[in-house]
Amino acid sequence: MSSQTKTPSQELAGSPTRSPWWIGAIAGLASAAAGLAIGELIAGIWTSLESPVVSVGNRVVDNVPRPLKTWAIETFGTNDKAVLLGMVALLLALGAALIGMLAVRRGLRFGLIGIGIFTAVGMLASLGRGTSGLLAPLPSLVGGLVAGAALALLMYRGNLDFAGEQAVAGSQTQPAQALPAQALPAQALPAQSMLLKAPNRRQFLGTAAGVTAGAVVIGGAARWLRNQGAAAAERLKIVLPRATQPLPDPPAAVELGVAGAAPFFTPTSEFYRIDTALTVPRVDLSTWTLEVMGEVSTPITLSYEQLLERPMIEADITIACVSNEVGGDLIGTARWLGCRLDDLLKEAGVSATADQIVGRSVDGFTAGFPTALLDGRDALVAIAMNGEPLPAKHGFPARLIVPGVYGYVSATKWLSQIELTTFEAFQGYWIPRGWSVDGPIKTQSRIDTPRNGSRVTAGSTVPIAGVAWAPIRGISKVEVRIDNGEWQEATLGEEYQATTWRQWKLDWKPSSGEHKIAVRATDGEGATQTDQLAPVAPDGATGWHTITVYAE
Ligand SMILES: Nc1nc2c(c(=O)[nH]1)N[C@H]1C(S)=C(S)[C@@H](COP(=O)(O)O)O[C@H]1N2
Ligand SMILES: [Mo]
């Protein structure tokens, strides 16, 4: 018998859960979609706020144990963030479907309690991250209210709540079919008449379709706001100041011009990106400021315009990630434009007790390095890379760049504060997570061409080439070893700045067969790169990059 042919009383005479499970799942999913879309929209309008999904995802990122994080990065590569967001969304969808089913079977208030729990999780996850303070839970709160309202509306339109609750109540006392209507006492009649209101599937589905369509439109608008929003447009309007001390181009001979080897300057579009941010923070320039605070005599607050008015220098600096494996590509070189950090701190007057400079991001990330690193090197509050305002991914509107140390202790993107403190008083983001307090970049070299596992032509001239780096000590020598032969000195790109990597190459005429090629570099102080293998944690990988190629 199909449901259309049932009379209302026949509907009621069935089990207390007449509405099939999927009605509840639809109610839950549509309500959740509405709530989440509103959350995204609020976060899209007020760019300093995180949407509920992103807040929860960020909490997960901040708290997953390192082995799990390493596994995720190894398995999903740079898609790890998309996978995590997908998992949060999937869990949310499951939860939403269950909440909807509970509501339809047990009554609206059970559904509302479920939504309340999810809302509380979202609100809690948003707290204490970044600089949005007390407003941070707003997207989750409003999203939760909207989801609750949507669920109530759906159940009302489908006559679901009432029927469900009554049926359950009935089933707890006596089975509904044992209650002939005429046998009910008079005071039970109003309840009974509502009891007879059959679930209205058509109205329910229509409303669910409407709610879902609304959520899709609002979600789309939120996405558009995020992408096309204020920050991106503002960035395009920026006219970069000219450097007070412009830097001439590096000598042409820094570039050895071997096809397949990394160019001296890494194109911005290919520059590696590493950060904990699930979605790239979009900074509103009209409210953004950079504060220099903590153990200083004169705290400084700069607007973006004020930052741009400061004397600007250019510097060519190679930055690297501590998580770069031997032979990996989490490293790049750019021409950075910014104001000198040492000058800025001189103005602020660093107190003698401070030994740590902490960069804090608008999203709460922190990285700290010793005040002693300001030894005259070109540490910058950078506003541009390779001649363009910093792309959002790389820290717009400002970031720190400190030559010689890994990014996790220094290169804070979306910079909002520079705090002078002590190592005893404060640990940057990665330190309690098991990474080393100090992060000097280790001397390393990489073979870019030929590729590991590739085939080359026996008897022809095959250039072996790559890059070597040891900022800020510089590179003095690169050697290549083929099979178990002698170490042969490679040709180096022209000596330029010790803060950058150096290209190297060696021509080779392979005999046919399988060959192993290893590379090692010697830094500007005469220390040769160790062959001892070390993993990336806790302070950077070591070992010689070694590849196998086949000549035929
Ligand atoms: N706000 C913020 N800044 C950050 C990070 C981060 O997670 N959040 N990661 C750091 C790390 S570990 C590295 S290696 C560099 C990478 O900079 P890039 O993404 O511009 O290459 O940024 C640093 N700055
Ligand atoms: Mo990093």
UniProtKB/TrEMBL annotation:
<dbReference type="InterPro" id="IPR036374">
    <property type="entry name" value="OxRdtase_Mopterin-bd_sf"/>
</dbReference>
<keyword id="KW-0812">Transmembrane</keyword>
<protein>
    <submittedName>
        <fullName>Unannotated protein</fullName>
    </submittedName>
</protein>
<feature type="transmembrane region" description="Helical">
    <location>
        <begin position="82"/>
        <end position="103"/>
    </location>
</feature>
<feature type="transmembrane region" description="Helical">
    <location>
        <begin position="134"/>
        <end position="156"/>
    </location>
</feature>
<dbReference type="GO" id="GO:0043546">
    <property type="term" value="F:molybdopterin cofactor binding"/>
</dbReference>
<dbReference type="InterPro" id="IPR014756">
    <property type="entry name" value="Ig_E-set"/>
</dbReference>
<feature type="transmembrane region" description="Helical">
    <location>
        <begin position="21"/>
        <end position="46"/>
    </location>
</feature>
<feature type="domain" description="Oxidoreductase molybdopterin-binding">
    <location>
        <begin position="278"/>
        <end position="430"/>
    </location>
</feature>
<keyword id="KW-1133">Transmembrane helix</keyword>
<keyword id="KW-0472">Membrane</keyword>
<dbReference type="InterPro" id="IPR000572">
    <property type="entry name" value="OxRdtase_Mopterin-bd_dom"/>
</dbReference>
<dbReference type="Pfam" id="PF17957">
    <property type="entry name" value="Big_7"/>
</dbReference>
<feature type="transmembrane region" description="Helical">
    <location>
        <begin position="204"/>
        <end position="225"/>
    </location>
</feature>
<dbReference type="Pfam" id="PF00174">
    <property type="entry name" value="Oxidored_molyb"/>
</dbReference>
<dbReference type="GO" id="GO:0006790">
    <property type="term" value="P:sulfur compound metabolic process"/>
</dbReference>
<dbReference type="GO" id="GO:0020037">
    <property type="term" value="F:heme binding"/>
</dbReference>
<dbReference type="GO" id="GO:0008482">
    <property type="term" value="F:sulfite oxidase activity"/>
</dbReference>
<feature type="transmembrane region" description="Helical">
    <location>
        <begin position="110"/>
        <end position="128"/>
    </location>
</feature>
